[in-house]
Amino acid sequence: MRFDDPNSPGVRDAARAGYMIRTRTDSPTADARANDTTDREAAFVSGAHYLSTDYYEPSQYFESPYVVEFRDGAVARCNPVTAPPTCSDDQLTE
To answer: Would you put residue 35 in left (φ > 0), alpha (ψ -120 to 50) or beta?
Structure first.
C-alpha cells in the first residue's frame, strides 16, 4: 500500500495487518529547503517498510542540512510497529 502522507492514521494499522507499506519522508523540496523534519520523523515511526526521499544526502542545489538517513548510516532497521521485541538492529545486514 502507498501512503504519501506518513501522518495518515491508516499507516500503522495497514502495517499491523501485514501489508507492505511505502510512504514519503518529505514533500518535493519544501521540507528539505526549510529543514523541516516533521514528516521524516513521522515516517520513521509509521511502520512503513519503504521510505521515499530524494534527500539521502544533502542537496547540492540549496543550503540546508536536511538529509534522510538511519542512525550510524544503517540501511535497514527493525520495524518500530511490526518487529518482535527480540529484533535488534545489529542483527540486520546490508
So the answer is: left
Would you give the end-to-end CA distance of the chain in angstroms? 24
Cα torsion 65, 69, 94, 6 to 10°: value is -150
- The pTM score is 0.88
How many helices and strands, by DSSP H and E, does the chain display?
A: 3, 3
For 20-74, what is each residue's pLDDT tens digit? 999 999 988 899 999 999 999 999 999 999 999 999 998 888 889 999 999 888 8
